[in-house]
């Protein structure tokens, strides 16, 4: 009867809504409502109607099995997730510590489990639904560097509540047993499980092209059919579930927290820069093959762009640098020299940066954007850092944090980095707004300008909003206005193995690489880089070498106290080709060796950037003589093989 009356009543209702707007209309609506409720209540109260009871019970059982149909919102309660969905894959190697490609695991399989399972039941559910799963295994996840990290055994509800995975997948790592150690021909299978936690009332089809096995809720379906065959009483139907609430579905506090902000994975903070970069090199670089780059010392940027334009250029191969007119084979020194000069040229000559040295912003230039200059700069910087070269070390710290999606306070932002005088003056006026009269004057004279910066609430702002408005103006001109330039720059970096995505995940580690936040060289840190090749103790040569090192130590002290016109960075360039310690460090410690001055000749100190060696003359006991020798060596260095 319900199927017969409802369509005709619904049609009458729609026709009435479209045709009448009067007291008769309201009476008609009330009449239709009363008739629909009376008909529905009559069906619910028919105890002797076998057909009606069967319909209600069948619908209730269906809802319990498949979690389908409308859900009445419980007052004062919270929507509970009754099932959780897991995506499971099986790893193929029990000793695997890095997940490198899809070949390391079987195709993903979807498993749906009840949310109220304990840890043991959860593990058993995985064994029941995943093929080729090992008998003993551990739960783990993969971080942004593809390291497989173990997890504690948790029930499904605990995994969700504690957000143990974040955006990562959940991996099942088989335990290495004696049978695994003794096996020779067979390949041990372990499982890697990727989890997507969400309510399963509306299944997600087509999002992941994976096989969906029979879910655990099917066990309840089989149990219900078995009970019906044996004449057991069917479960009581809760009629409250048939009432539909027009309010929107409720979202739990955890869901709101997850949706409101991206996951912050603290595991990246535990890794240092050298580990992050070394993992990237092992995954992407081909150190067994070389790519020759011919460079002119006075046109480094042009030489690098020419290399990038060649069809045979490959960024993941080890660059072999050949400086035109210089006699040197590249065993590391020319490469360090090339990338150091390239970062200087990228900062000064490409034209994509502007502002104060060491705190640069991206230049707002449509012409540079259309000529892909920002893309070129991003690729050159990623190329340099990937091969243990320097980064730009010039980008404004606040801008770098915004680029990495991090929240940063702009209260201490130095407006002097802006090149436009009007922008600086207007921001200063906002900063100096401290009275209601100042605020009224600000709205009158700069209201339209501030609103054009994406702050339309300036006209209703109070004095408490002044610092927030100042920060939003700064972020507009430093970040949002040049978003297209930043996007092209990031695309250039990502062209080298998604390099920027790694930087974004490990932004704290890369902060001194992109900004001027690194530690400067001091006398002590510089001395720690060197070992001295002494002659045997008690020999005449050892005595002369100690006299030279005595003057060397005093000369380093003079550099630290700014008594000489040299810097530790300049001296490090002379010895290694790099002006700072590379992210992965030097391949070996720097050396100080000695040579004898031939009679009647004056040989100045020299260096080998490939072997990281500095050669000093023995027996230099005069301070002024040593200073003159070092000054001539540093100022007269014209290139490789030209000292």
Automatic annotation (TrEMBL):
Pfam family, one: HECT
Domain of life where this protein originates: Eukaryota
InterPro entries xref list: HECT_dom, Hect_E3_ubiquitin_ligase
Molecular functions (GO terms): ubiquitin-protein transferase activity
Catalytic residues in the record: 610
Signal sequence segment: none
Domain HECT: from-to ranges: 321-348, 571-643
UniProt keyword list: Transferase, Ubl conjugation pathway
Protein name, per record: HECT domain-containing protein
Gene it is expressed from: LOC109201529
């Amino acid at each position: 009867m319900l199927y017969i009356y409802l369509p005709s009543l619904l049609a009458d209702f729609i026709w009435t809504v479209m045709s009448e707007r009067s007291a008769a209309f309201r009476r008609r609506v009330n009449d239709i409502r009363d008739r629909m409720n009376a008909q529905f209540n009559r069906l619910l109260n028919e105890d002797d109607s076998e057909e009606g009871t069967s319909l209600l019970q069948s619908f209730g059982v269906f809802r319990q099995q498949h979690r389908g149909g409308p859900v009445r919102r419980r007052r004062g309660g919270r929507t509970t997730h009754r099932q959780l969905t897991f995506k499971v894959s099986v790893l193929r190697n029990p000793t695997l510590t890095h997940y490198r490609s899809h070949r390391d695991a079987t195709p993903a399989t979807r498993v749906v489990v009840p949310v109220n399972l304990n840890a043991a039941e959860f593990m058993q559910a995985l064994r029941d639904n995943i093929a080729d799963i090992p008998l003993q295994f551990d739960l783990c996840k993969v971080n942004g560097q593809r390291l497989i990290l173990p997890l504690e055994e948790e029930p499904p509800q605990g995994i969700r509540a504690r957000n143990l995975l974040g955006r990562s997948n959940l991996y099942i790592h088989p335990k290495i047993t004696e049978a695994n150690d003794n096996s020779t021909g067979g390949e041990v299978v372990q499982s890697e499980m990727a989890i997507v936690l969400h309510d399963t009332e509306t299944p997600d089809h087509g999002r992941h092209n994976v096989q969906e096995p029979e879910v655990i809720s099917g066990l309840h379906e089989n149990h219900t059919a078995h009970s019906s065959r044996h004449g057991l009483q069917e479960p009581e139907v809760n009629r409250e579930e048939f009432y539909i609430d027009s309010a929107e579905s409720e979202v739990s506090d955890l869901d709101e927290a997850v949706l409101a902000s991206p996951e912050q994975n603290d595991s990246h903070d535990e890794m240092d820069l050298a580990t992050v970069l070394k993992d990237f090199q092992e995954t992407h670089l081909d150190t067994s093959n070389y790519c020759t780059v011919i460079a002119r010392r006075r046109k480094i940027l042009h030489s690098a762009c020419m290399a990038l334009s060649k069809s045979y250029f490959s960024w993941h191969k080890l660059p072999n640098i050949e400086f035109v007119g210089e006699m040197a084979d590249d065993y590391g020194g020319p490469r360090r020299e090339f990338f150091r000069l390239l970062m200087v040229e990228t900062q000064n000559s490409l034209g994509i940066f502007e502002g104060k040295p060491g705190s640069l912003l991206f230049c707002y230039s449509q012409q540079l954007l259309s000529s892909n200059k920002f893309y070129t700069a991003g690729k050159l910087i990623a190329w340099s850092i990937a091969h243990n070269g320097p980064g730009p070390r010039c980008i404004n710290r606040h801008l770098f944090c915004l680029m990495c999606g991090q929240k940063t306070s702009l209260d201490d932002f130095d407006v002097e980095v802006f090149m436009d005088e009007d922008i600086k003056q207007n921001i200063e006026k906002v900063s100096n707004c401290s009275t209601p009269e100042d605020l009224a004057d600000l709205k009158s004279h700069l209201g339209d300008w501030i609103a054009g910066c994406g702050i339309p609430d300036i006209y209703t702002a109070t004095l408490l909003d002044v610092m927030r408005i100042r920060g939003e103006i700064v972020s507009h001109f430093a970040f949002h206005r040049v978003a297209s330039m930043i996007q092209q720059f990031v695309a250039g970096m990502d062209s080298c193995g998604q390099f920027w995505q790694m930087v974004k995940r490990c932004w704290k580690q890369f902060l001194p690489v992109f900004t001027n936040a690194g530690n400067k060289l001091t006398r002590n840190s510089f001395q720690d880089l060197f070992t001295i090749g002494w002659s045997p103790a008690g020999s005449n040569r050892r005595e002369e070498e100690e006299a030279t090192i005595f003057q060397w130590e005093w000369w380093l002290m003079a550099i630290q106290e700014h008594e000489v016109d040299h810097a530790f960075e300049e001296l490090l360039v002379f010895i290694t080709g790099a002006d700072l310690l590379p992210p992965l460090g030097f391949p070996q410690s720097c050396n100080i060796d000695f040579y004898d001055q031939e009679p009647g000749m004056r040989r100045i100190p020299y260096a080998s950037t490939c072997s990281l060696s500095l050669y000093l003359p023995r027996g230099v006991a005069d301070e002024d003589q040593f200073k003159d020798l070092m000054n001539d060596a540093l100022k007269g260095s014209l290139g490789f093989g030209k000292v």
